[in-house]
């Protein structure tokens, strides 16, 4: 494609790269020649992801905390020397709010929404100094279908959607793109079903492989400098909507 944005040498931070969509994304980005830093809370899962996506580097930290964000961006500065692109995949599932304890639902909000905003803020400050960049947020079609049982999770993803669409207008003059990829049902660790049930759902076209979302992310990041994919919604052929 003429004017395709090449990822070779790009400095990319991927939050939540230890499982699911994030893990498949860091693998594709490394294969494209990008310099990739990722993070997650679990050291064993991080090591597995880094072995899967050889060439990526990682740190264990918690996106829900100020200290965790500070540590990540210290690594961005020291290991990458800055940031060209941010991809936010870190997220937790949740039960209905009345079925969670107070600390539980607040932690989901801190992880999914506050952590995403904090990563965006720190990235923007660095991208301003280097002349531009690209923020890509992994959202969810839960903001559209509003399925029973997903009140807390949907609230976090709706917040990300509104944040991204508004932020795009606020920083367009800084040469920073803002995009959202909205996946439907995906075969990830977040799904509360067995491996056999997920495999069957994929076969029945009711669930997507995480690699397909990673490929969508790659598509968005590689458009020309003049093109900004604002929203990309990708879902299985037979998407459950309630």
Task: Describe this protein's structure.
By secondary structure, the chain is of the alpha/beta class. It has one domain (11-234): Rossmann fold, CATH 3.40.50. 46% of the residues lie in helices and 17% in strands. The protein is built from eight helices and nine strands. The protein has helices spanning 20-31, 43-52, 66-80, 102-130, 142-145, 151-171, 195-203, 210-221; strands spanning 11-15, 35-40, 57-60, 85-88, 133-138, 176-183, 186-187, 208-209, 231-234. The strands form two sheets. The protein has a seven-stranded parallel beta sheet with strand order 3-2-1-4-5-6-9, with helices on both faces. It has a two-stranded parallel ribbon with strand order 7-8. β1 (11-15), α1 and β2 form a beta-alpha-beta unit. α1 (20-31) crosses α8 and α4 (102-130) runs parallel beside α6 (151-171). It is globular, with a radius of gyration of 17 Å. The model has no long low-confidence stretch (mean pLDDT 92).
- Structural class of the secondary elements? alpha/beta
Low-confidence stretches: none
- Tally of domains: 1
Report the total helices. Answer: 8
What does the secondary structure layout of this molecule look like, with pairings?
Blueprint: E1 11-15, H1 20-31, E2 35-40, H2 43-52, E3 57-60, H3 66-80, E4 85-88, H4 102-130, E5 133-138, H5 142-145, H6 151-171, E6 176-183, E7 186-187, H7 195-203, E8 208-209, H8 210-221, E9 231-234
Parallel strand pairs: 1-2, 1-4, 2-3, 4-5, 5-6, 6-9, 7-8
Brief summary:
The chain is an alpha/beta fold. The chain has helices at residues 20-31, 43-52, 66-80, 102-130, 142-145, 151-171, 195-203, 210-221; strands at residues 11-15, 35-40, 57-60, 85-88, 133-138, 176-183, 186-187, 208-209, 231-234.
């Amino acid at each position: 494609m003429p004017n395709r944005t090449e990822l070779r040498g790009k400095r990319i931070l991927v939050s939540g790269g230890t499982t699911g969509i994030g893990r498949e994304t860091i693998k594709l980005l490394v294969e494209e020649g990008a310099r990739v830093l990722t993070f997650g809370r679990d050291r064993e899962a991080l090591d597995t992801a880094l072995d899967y996506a050889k060439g990526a580097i990682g740190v264990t930290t918690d996106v829900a905390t100020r200290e965790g964000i500070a540590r990540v961006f210290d690594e961005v500065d020291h290991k990458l020397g800055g940031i060209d692109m941010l991809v936010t995949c870190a997220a937790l599932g949740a039960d209905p709010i009345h079925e969670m304890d107070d600390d539980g639902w607040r932690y989901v909000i801190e992880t999914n929404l506050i952590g995403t905003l904090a990563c965006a803020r720190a990235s923007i400050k660095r991208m301003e100094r280097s002349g531009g960049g690209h923020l890509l947020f992994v959202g969810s079609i839960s903001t559209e279908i509003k399925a029973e049982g997903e009140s807390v999770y949907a609230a976090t993803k709706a917040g990300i959607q509104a944040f991204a669409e508004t932020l795009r207008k606020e920083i367009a003059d800084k040469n920073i793109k803002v995009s959202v990829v909205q996946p439907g049902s995906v075969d990830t660790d977040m799904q509360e079903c067995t491996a056999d049930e997920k495999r069957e759902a994929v076969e029945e076209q009711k669930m997507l492989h995480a690699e397909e979302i990673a490929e969508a992310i790659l598509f968005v990041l590689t458009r020309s400098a003049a093109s900004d994919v604002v929203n990309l919604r990708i879902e299985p052929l037979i998407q459950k909507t309630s």
